[in-house]
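F.,

This is the one I mentioned.
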């Protein structure tokens, strides 16, 4: 869908149909910023947060069903997703994460990955990592150039990647922390989790670094922007 008159009208209707939450409304639906195919700006002037829109439902309905290779099944409500994301965001902020920083992950498709991703996006930081089933050395190449402030590993992935990272200069294990301790660090002295703050950002603010499969060589990444 391009920036023609019909295209603008279509995406304007999409915005209003889904009742996008924004602290500042957009001035223009579409603006051409250059001659290139990607030189575009959508919803100029709008300030919003993707995580806030994803988590707009915060009740007791089931929002997530988790199943693993061992046959375990768990259901998580929308409210639980919000509360867990709040816990992760508080810990991230405690450790200095801010708008524009990067969080690198090497984590399987488990509930913790969703909580961490939503927390990262709520702060305005960028969530990214290699395809988790790719071979370890291929993944290491990503971390060497990612310039990430926080590295998030889990389970067997942390064991495999930890061994390979042990001799790398860009990781300081003196600053490593277990997940439970990390999450607790975001609480106040009274055990209260600070409120979740959704940083209001331009519509084209980068949120996620996605990667190719790496089947033909080193994985290549690109930013996911809401454009």
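My design for it:
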């Amino acid at each position: 869908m391009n920036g023609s008159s019909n295209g603008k009208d279509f995406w304007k209707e999409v915005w209003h149909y889904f009742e996008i939450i924004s602290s500042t409304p957009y001035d223009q639906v579409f603006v051409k910023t250059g001659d290139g195919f990607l030189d575009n700006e959508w919803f100029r002037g709008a300030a919003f947060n993707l995580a806030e829109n994803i988590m707009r439902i915060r009740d007791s309905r089931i929002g997530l069903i988790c199943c693993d290779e061992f046959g375990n099944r768990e259901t998580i409500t929308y409210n639980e997703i919000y509360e867990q994301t709040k816990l992760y965001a508080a810990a991230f902020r405690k450790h200095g994460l801010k708008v524009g920083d990067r969080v690198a992950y090497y984590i399987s498709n488990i509930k913790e990955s969703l909580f961490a991703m939503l927390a990262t996006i709520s702060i305005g930081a960028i969530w990214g990592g290699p395809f988790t089933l790719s071979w370890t050395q291929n993944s290491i190449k990503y971390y060497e150039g990612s310039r990430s402030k926080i590295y998030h590993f889990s389970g067997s992935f942390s064991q495999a990647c930890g061994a390979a990272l042990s001799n790398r200069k860009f990781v300081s294990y003196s600053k490593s922390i277990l997940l439970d301790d990390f999450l607790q660090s975001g609480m106040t002295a009274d055990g209260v989790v600070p409120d979740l703050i959704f940083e209001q950002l331009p519509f084209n603010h980068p949120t996620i670094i996605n990667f190719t499969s790496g089947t033909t060589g080193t994985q290549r990444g690109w930013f996911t922007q809401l454009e």
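The radius of gyration is 19 Å.

Talk soon.
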